[in-house]
Amino acid sequence: MKRIVGIGNALVDVMTLIDSDNILGKFSLPKGSMQLVDAEKSALIKSETINFKRNLASGGSAANTIHGLAMLGLKSGFIGSIGKDDIGDFFENDMKMAGVKTFLTRRNSITGTAVALISKDSERTFATHLGAAVELSAEDLHPHYFKEYDILYMEGYLILNKPLVERACIIAKENNMKIALDLASYNVVESKLQDFQYIVDKYVDIIFANEEEAKAFTGLSPDEALRVLSGFCDIAVIKVGSDGSMVKRGNEIIKIGTIPVNCVDTTGAGDLYASGFLYGYSSGLPLEECGRFGSVLAGHVIEIVGARMDEHRWKKIVKSLKKEIDNV
Question: Are 221 and 209 in contact (CB under 8 A)?
C-alpha cells in the first residue's frame, strides 16, 4: 500500500452554524467561497457569531484529507506551519491522535483559523485567517520529510506561494513520487490561473476539482472540463455534488454516483472524497472503486457538522472498505 504525505495550510476550523445568510452579506463573504481575511476581521466575525453553535477541529484542506487517510490506516504525514500557542498545540495533537506523522514548523505568529459559516442549506463559506500557516516557505521543506512516502498531496490554496509549491513538487519528483493536487476553491483558481496551469502541466499526476473549480480552470462544463484536465495529467477527477463524480484516465471515463445520505453540512466533502479515492488508489484498486470509496467517505462526512467523524463511524467505514478490497 502506498504512503502519502500532504502539505497545506495548518488551520483550526471553527465550525459555526448560522441561522441566516445575512451574516455573509454583512462581511462581504460570497456564499460557498473561501475568503482570506486579516486577524482583525477574523476576530470580528468570531465575535459576531459567538452565540451560534460551534466546535473546533484541526483543519485546512490537505490536513483534512491526510487525517482521513490516517483514520483509514494508511501511513500518512503532514507538512505545515503553526504558532507557538494553544491553538497550535490543539492542531498538532489532533493530527497525531489520528496517526499522522507531523512535520510542523513553529512560528511566533498565531495559528491560523478558518471560520466555517454553515448555512441552513448545508453550504459552507470560509473566512480564513492564515496566520502562521502562510509563513511556511520553500526553505522549510527538508528532503527527508518526503523520503518515507510514495505520493505528495497538495491543496490548491498553496498556489498563493508558488515557490513553495514548486519546491515541494521538485523534491517529490526527485524521490519518484506521484503528485496529487486538489484545486481547492474557484476564486483562488480564477486569481491564480496561470500559476495553476504551469504547476499542473509540469508536475501533477492526479488532479481533483469540483464543478466550479473545473469551470474556473477551463471555462467549460464538467464533461468538457474533464477532457481538458485529463490532458494535463494522468488522472482527472471532477466532483459534481449530488450527481457524484467523474474520473478520466487516458480514454477511460467513469461516472460514479453518491450514497444515500442525510446531508447536514458539506464541510470536508471534497477533502474526504480525496481521502477515499487515494486510499483506493494506494491499494491498487481500479478507478471505479477509487471513486466509489471517495463517494462513501464524502457521503458519511456530510452527515455530521465539520470534517471530523467520530471513531465509531470510522470503524464502520474501515470495516466496509477493507471487505470490499478483499473481494476485488
Answer: no
Q: Where are the beta strands (DSSP E) in 150-205?
A: 151-155, 178-182
The length of the chain, given as a count of residues: 328
Question: 163: closest CA among 129, 200, 136?
Answer: 136
Contact 98, 67 (CB under 8 A): yes
- Separation CA 298–CA 302 (nearest Å): 6
**pLDDT tens for residues 99-157?**
999 999 999 999 999 898 999 888 889 899 999 999 999 999 999 999 999 999 999 99
Q: Which helix (H) or strand (E) holds 290?
A: helix 287-301
Q: CB under 8 Å to 96, separation ≥6 — which residues?
A: 102
Looking at the DSSP bridge assignments, the partners of residue 153 are 6, 180
Sign of CA dihedral 312, 314, 320, 326: negative
Which domains are present in the chain? 4-9+60-109+131-327 (3.40.1190.20)
Q: Measured between alpha carbons, how far is 71 from 98 in angstroms, rounded to an integer?
A: 6
- Phi/psi for 320 (5° steps) reads -65, -45
Using one digit for the tens of pLDDT, what is the confidence trace for 275-327? 999 999 999 999 999 999 999 999 999 888 777 898 899 999 999 898 888 87
Q: CB–CB of 115/39 below 8 Å?
A: no
User: What single letter denotes the amino acid at residue 115?
Assistant: V
